[in-house]
Amino acid sequence: MLTASSTPVEQLAMAPSIARGSGAVALVVRTAGLAIAALLVLVLLLWVTGHDARAALSALWRGAFGSWYAITSATLVRAVPLALAGLAVALAFRAGILNVGAEGQLLMGAATGAALASLMGTAPAPIVMVGMLVVGAVAGGAWAAIAAFLRLRFGVLEVISTIMLNFLAQYLVGWLVRGPLQEPTRVNPQSASLPDALHLPLLLGGTRLHVGVLLAILLSVGVWWWLRETAGGFRLRAVGLNAAAAASAGRIRVGRTVLLAFVASGALAGLAGVVEFTGVTYALYDNFSPGYGFTAIAVALLARLHPLGVLATALLFGALEAGANAMQRDAGVPNVVVSVVEATLILLVVAAERWQSRSVAHAESAE
Amino acid sequence: MTDDAAGDVVLSLEGVTRRFGSVVALDHASLRVRRGTVHAVLGENGAGKTTLMRVAFGLLQPDAGTIRFQGAVRTIASPAVALSLGVGMVHQHFTLVPAMTVAENVALGGRGRFDPRAAAARVRDVATRAGLALDPDAMVGALPVGAQQRCEIVKALARDVSLLILDEPTAVLAPTEATELLRWIRAHADAGHAVVLITHKLRDAIAIADDVTVLRRGRSVFTGRARDTDEAELADAMLGREETATNAPRVRREQPARDSAKAGGDDCIDAVRTTPVTTPRRDAAQPAAREGAPVLEATRIHVRDARGVERVRGASMHVHAGEIVGIAAIEGEGQHELLRVLAGRADPVSGTLTRPATVGFVPEDRHGEALLLDATLLENVALRDAGARRGRMPWSALRALTTEIVRDYTVRNGSAELMVRALSGGNQQKLVLGRELRDAPAALVVENPSRGLDFRATTAVRHALRAARDDGAAVVLYSSDLDELLLLADRVYAMHNGVLTETARDRELVGRAMLSA
Amino acid sequence: MTPGLESASGFLEASVRTATPLAFAALGECISERAGVINIGLEGSIICGALGATVAAGVAGAGAGFLAGAMAGMLIALIFAFFTVWIRADQIITGTAITLLSLGLTGTLYRTLYGSVGVALSIPTVGVVPLPGLAQLPLVGDAFFAQPLVTYALYLLIPLCAWWLMRTQAGLALRAVGEQPSSAIAAGVRPRRVQLAAVLFAGAMAGLAGATLVLAQAGTFVEGMSAGRGFIAIAIVVLGRWKPLGVAAAAMLFGGANSLQTLFQAMGWQNIPYQLFLAVPYLLTLLVLAGASGRVAAPAALGRRELGGS
User: Fold this and answer.
1) Which of B193, B295, B434, B459 suits B77 as a labelling partner, its CA being 20 to 30 A distant?
2) Shortest CA distance to B505 belongs to which of B266, B259, B326?
3) Chain C contact for B157, CB < 8 A?
4) What is the CA radius of gyration of chain B?
5) What proportion of chain C, given as a percentage, has pLDDT over 90?
6) Nearest to B162 by CA among B61, B224, B82
7) B107 vs C168: CB contact, 8 Å cut-off?
8) Residue B328 contacts residue B483 (beta carbons within 8 Å)
C-alpha cells in the first residue's frame, strides 16, 4: 500500500488538470479556434445579407492593418479606451465583482476632466493636463465606490446598482453639456472644445496616436505584475476565487479588498474616459462613449481576465471596429456587424469555459 | 406490533449497485421494508445509507439491481415517480423554501390552482391526523428546526405516502424533540404505514425499529429483527471485525486513544509520514502534559452568529499544550460558533478569551471555507495568513514549502502548480492539514476532519492530529461522529444549548451530557 | 378643460404611453427574476422585437407585427436560455453578449433590408381605441382609456401575472425555483423547464415591448431604438419589489419621469433641466435597494448558476 500507485479516485481526478491545458499550445489552439469560429460567423452573416464577403473582409483588413495610418490612427487609437476599460472590468471580475458600470465610471471620468479643464483654464497646461487625468481616475473610482458601499453596507447586487449608476452618469453628462459645461455659444449640447495645449501629446507625427497608448500598456503590465507578485494582488484574487475561504483560511478582510478592487476598477474606467476626452474627442457630449464600458466586458472576458491578454483583445476589438468602418465605407457592409462578431466571441468563450468546468465537476462527483 | 407476521413487503431493493466514477458506493445492497414496520438502516458515515435511499427515492439511478414496489418491479426515474408510488422522503438537510409559508411548502409540486386557504386547511388536517403541531401560515425561515422538520414530514404525508424515509431525523433535534419524534415514528408505523429510519444511532434503532439492515461499504452486511440483536452485534456489523480490532474502540470495549493509535499505526497508516516527529511518542499510560498555563482558555464567553442569535452562552473551557480536547454536541448547539472563536475567526461578544496569535483551523466545509478550488496548491498554501502579509509574495519560498507539505503529508499527485480541484477530497484535506500545521502553531482547531473521506484518508488525518498533539499543540476537535471523538480526544466537553460541560471520556456519559445540560 | 388640467391629462397620457413598453418588458423580467434568472439581454429581445414587428407589419399588417415582435423577442431569449438555463453559464456575461449580438444583428439586417441611410420607413401603426364610458372620465379617461389595444392587453396581463404567480401551482413552483432550486427539485419541480419557460415568456414580453415602440409609438424602426429600455426594465423590477402590481406602478413612475419634458414644455418651464428629473427614478431605485436590505425582497437564488446545493 505504500507504492506510488494512486487510488482510482485520484486517477480520475487527474483528468481535469490535463484538460485544463496549462500548456501554451492549448491556449494558442483555443484562441485560433475562437478566431476562426468568429470569422465564420462573420462570413455567414455577410453571405446571408447578400454582401460580397471577399470584398468586405479585404476592406476590414485594410481599415485595420492595411496602412501605417490605419494601424496607428484607427486601430490603436480605438484600442486605448477599450484596453483601459477592459482592464477595469478584468480587475473587478478577478475580485469576484460583477462591475457592469464601467460605462458610467468612464463617463464620470470624462465629465470631471472636462469640468477641471473649464475651471482651471488659466493654469499652466502641464498641471491641468495631469490634473485632468488624476481627477478623472478619482471620479471613476468614487462612482464605483458608491456601488461598493451599497454592496458592503446593504448587500445590494452590484450588477443592479452599477446599471443604475450608468444611467445616472449618462443623465448627468446630458445635463452638464446643456448646463454648466455647455460651449460658450450655447447652441450645441456639448462642452467647449479643449484648447490645443491641453490635448494629450501625440506619440507620432502625422498620426492621431496619443500617449494614452503608452499609459494603457504601462497600466496593463503594472496590474499584471501587481496581481501576480504582491500580497495585495494575491488577496484580490483570493477573494474573487472564494471570499469565505479568503476570510477564514487567509484572515483577509474581504470588505476592504472588495472596496479596493471596486475603486481601482472604477479609477481605471474613469481614466479611460478622461484619456479619450483629452486624447481623441476633445469635447464632452451626449453619446461621448459608444458603449466602451460594455465592449470592455467582452474585451476582458475574451482575455480570460488576464491583464496582458486585455491588451491583445483590446487591439483585436480596436482593429475590428476600425476595420468595420472601412468595411462600411468601401464595401457597404453595416459597421455594426462587428458587434455580432464580438458577441459570438463572448458566447463561445462562455460555452467553452462551462464545458471545461463541467468535465471537472463530473470528475468531482466521484467523491 | 406486527413484527411476527410475515407482513407484505412494501419496498424491496435487491442487489442494488451504484458507482460514482470508479468508486463503488453501493455494492449489491438489499433492503426489504414491510408494511406497518419501522425499518432502521444503520451504518457509519459513508457506508451508503443515504445513497441507497436516494436510489429508492429516485434521486439517483442504480447501475444494477431491482427495485420492487408492492411486489411490482419499478424504475424510479425521479422523485416525482417515487411520490406517485407513495414513497416520501425527509432529507437530512431540509428541502424547504425559507421564504415561503408552511402551506406553500407543503403544496409545492402539485398541479392546477393554488388556493392558500385550502392549502392551509390541508396542512392543518394532515398535521392533526398525524399528531404533529404546525402553523400552516408561518414563514418557514422563521420556524425553529423542530418545526421545520415537522413541516418536512407533513409535506411527505400530504402526498398520502405509504412509505416514509427519514434520513437521520434526530441529528438536528434537541433531545426532547428527538424522543417525541421517535415516539411519533413508532405510532405512525403502528397505524399501518411503513417507515425507513436512516440512522447511525444504535440505540434509536434497537428502541423503535422492527427490522434492522446494516450497511458497510455499500454492502448489506446484516439484516434481522431488532429484538433478536443487541448493540454489540450491530456495532460489529457496522464496523467489521478487523477494523474494530485495529482502529476504533467501540461500545463497551473502550480503549485508551494512544493504544489504538499505536495498534493502528503499523498496519493501516501507510499514507502519512507526518511532520518529522521530534519528540518521541509518549507512553500510552502517561497522561498528557498539563503543566503551565493553558494555551487556549475561554471563560464564560458569549458568541452571536451572523444573524445576531446568541449561540454560545457563557461557555468556559481550557486546552493545554499537548492534548486533544474534544467537543461533543449534536448539530447546532453552538459548537460552530465556539470553534470559530477559538480559532480566531470570530470574536465573542463578552467573556474572557486567551488564544495564541495564530491558530491553525481546519473547518468542516473544506470547499467553502478552507480552499480556493480553482487555484493552485501553491496559492492555497500561500493563503495562510495572506491577510497580514505586506509587499511582495515570496513565491519561491512558498513553492518550496508547498513541495514539502505535499511530500510530508503525502498529498497524492500533488504538485505546486496543480489546481486543488484536481485533488481528491482526502488529499485536499491533507493539504489543508499540512498548511495549518506547517508552522507548528501553538493551537489547532479542527471540525469534522474526516467527513466525506475514505478509510485511508481518515486514518491519515487522525494520525496527523495525534502527531500534532504529540508535538505539543493544543488541539480542539469537534466531530459529529462520537466514536471518532472518543477515539482521538484526551478530554471531552459536551456542548448543549451553548454551554460546555466537561465530561468523562465515556460514551454513555458524554452521550447523556450532549443531550441535556 | 382648464389648461392646467389639460396639460396634466396630457402628461398622464404621455406617461402611460411611455410606460407601456417599459411595463411589458419589466413584467416579463419580473417573472424571469422570480424564477432566479436575471436577463440583461432583455434589451436584445426588445430591439429584435422591434425589427421583427417592423418587417412583419410591413408585409402583413399590425397584428402580424405584434406576433412577429413577440416571436423575435422569444427567439433571442431562447439563445440566452440555452447558455444560462441549459449550460448554466453566467447570466450577466451572457446577457451582455446577447444585447451586443442583437444590436449588431438588427442594425445589419435593417440596413440590408431597407438601405444604409434608412429609408423613411412607413409602416401601418395601430390607432387609439377609446373605451366607451371609461374614456370620458375626467383627467384619467384620456390618459388611461384612450390608448391602443395593446395597452389594454397590458392592463389585463398585469393582474393575470400577479394571480398566476400567487394562486397557481405553476406560479408556486416558479417562485420556489427562484428561491431554493434544490428544494424545488426535491418537490418534483424541474427547475430548468421552469426557468426556460420564464425566460421565454420574458423574451416574448420584451419583444412585445419592441413591437409597441414601433407600431404604437414611433411608426418606424430606428437602429438602437430600444435605447436602454431593457436595463430600465431591470430597474423597474427592483423598484416594484419583484411583484407584478409593484412593477406596473414603478413603470408608471419611470414613464412619468420620461414625460416630464413634455409637461415642462406645455407649462412653459423651459429652464428646468429635465435630465435631472430623468435621473430621479434611478436614484429612487438605488435608495429602495439600500432600504430593502434586511427585509430581503430579491429572490434568494437570483443570478445563481448552480441548481443544487442549499
Assistant:
1) B193
2) B326
3) no
4) 24
5) 51
6) B82
7) no
8) no
10 Å Cβ neighbour count for C268? Answer: 8
What pLDDT, in 10s, does the model give residues C108-155? 998 888 875 555 567 777 888 888 888 888 777 888 888 899 999 999
Give which of B90, A339, B207, B165 is closest to C183, Cα–Cα: B90
| Residues 6+ positions from B410 with CB-CB distance below 8 Å | B271, B272, B273, B430, B460
Angle at which helices A307-331 and A292-302 pack, to 10 degrees? 120
pTM over 0.90: no
Q: Which of C172, C190, C295, C302 to mutate to test the interface with B (most CBs of B within 10 A)?
A: C172
C19 sits in which H/E element: helix C3-34
For A13, the closest of B383, B392, B422 (CB atoms) is: B422
pLDDT < 50 regions, chain A: 1-23, 362-367
For A357, the grid coordinates are: 468546468
The ipTM of this complex is 0.87
B108 closest CB neighbour out of C166, C187, C310? C187
Check if the beta carbon of residue A234 is closer than 8 Å to that of residue B379: yes
State the chains in contact with C (3 or more Cβ–Cβ pairs under 8 Å): A, B
For the stretch B240-250, pLDDT in tens is 654 443 443 33
How far is C51 from A245, CA to CA, in rounded Å? 48
Query: Helices marked H in chain A — which ranges?
Result: 8-19, 24-48, 53-65, 68-69, 77-94, 102-119, 125-154, 158-176, 212-229, 231-241, 243-248, 254-276, 292-302, 307-331, 337-364
**Phi, psi (rounded to 5 degrees) for B311:** -105, -30
Q: Which residues numbered 168-187 in C keep a CB inside 8 Å of some CB on B? A: 168-173, 175-176, 179-180, 182-187
Residue B251's pLDDT band (cuts 50, 70, 90)? very low
Q: Give C-chain residues touching B98 at CB under 8 angstroms.
A: 179-180, 300
Higher pLDDT, B96 or A32: B96
Residue B107 bridge partners (DSSP): none
Min distance A11 CA to chain B CA atoms (Å): 9
